[in-house]
Design brief:
- The chain is α+β, with helices and mostly antiparallel strands.
- It has a single domain (about 5-145), classed as 3-Layer(aba) Sandwich (Aminopeptidase), CATH 3.40.630.
- The protein is about 35% helix and about 30% strand.
- The protein is built from 4 helices and 7 strands, in the order βααβββαβαββ.
- It has helices spanning about 15-35, 40-50, 90-105, 120-130, and strands at about 5-10, 55-60, 60-70, 75-85, 110-115, 130-135, 140-145.
- A 7-stranded mixed sheet has the order 1-2-3-4-5-7-6, sandwiched between helices.
- It is globular and about 40 Å long.
- The mean pLDDT is about 95.
């Protein structure tokens, strides 16, 4: 079932929501790879939350996820795409990706991202959308699509 959603620009007030969504989505993977250290994760988030690059995904005016994009003259880098579990598998993530893929195609840019090797569901999504998977390091793949 396809879920309708909107994107809004994040504000500093969204920082805690972003952290909680990321924790909900990634904690199991991070625990298996590096172990979960709450204080480290909070500090990392505080140093790396870029409000001007983040959008909040909303369904019926309820915040359900986040997407973070860095863009330059050559590429659109999908830094993160986190959707609360109860809103996953409703085409929100794939439609957001398609939206940025269309932008990349229009602007003749590469769209790229990194994904944890343990996150096979995310890899499946990106592969189904036509991304190419390359080895990045022992924990992540680099995935991209060029136009």
């Amino acid at each position: 079932m396809e879920q309708q959603f909107t994107l809004r620009n994040a504000t500093n007030n969204d920082s805690d929501f972003f952290y909680e969504v990321k924790k909900t989505v990634l904690k199991n993977y991070i625990e298996k790879i590096w172990g979960w250290n709450e204080m480290f994760q909070i500090k990392f988030h505080q140093e790396n939350f870029h409000v001007n690059e983040t959008k909040i995904i909303e369904v019926s005016n309820k915040s359900v996820g986040t997407v973070e994009i860095k863009e330059d003259d050559e590429k659109i880098f999908l830094c993160s795409l986190y959707i609360l579990p109860q809103y996953q598998n409703k085409k929100i993530g794939s439609n957001i990706c398609k939206m940025y893929m269309h932008k990349a195609e229009q602007e003749k840019k590469i769209i790229c991202l990194e994904v944890l090797k343990l996150n096979v569901n995310a890899q499946r999504l990106y592969l189904n959308l036509g991304f190419i998977k390359k080895e990045k390091d022992e924990t992540k793949y680099f995935m991209y699509k060029a136009y």
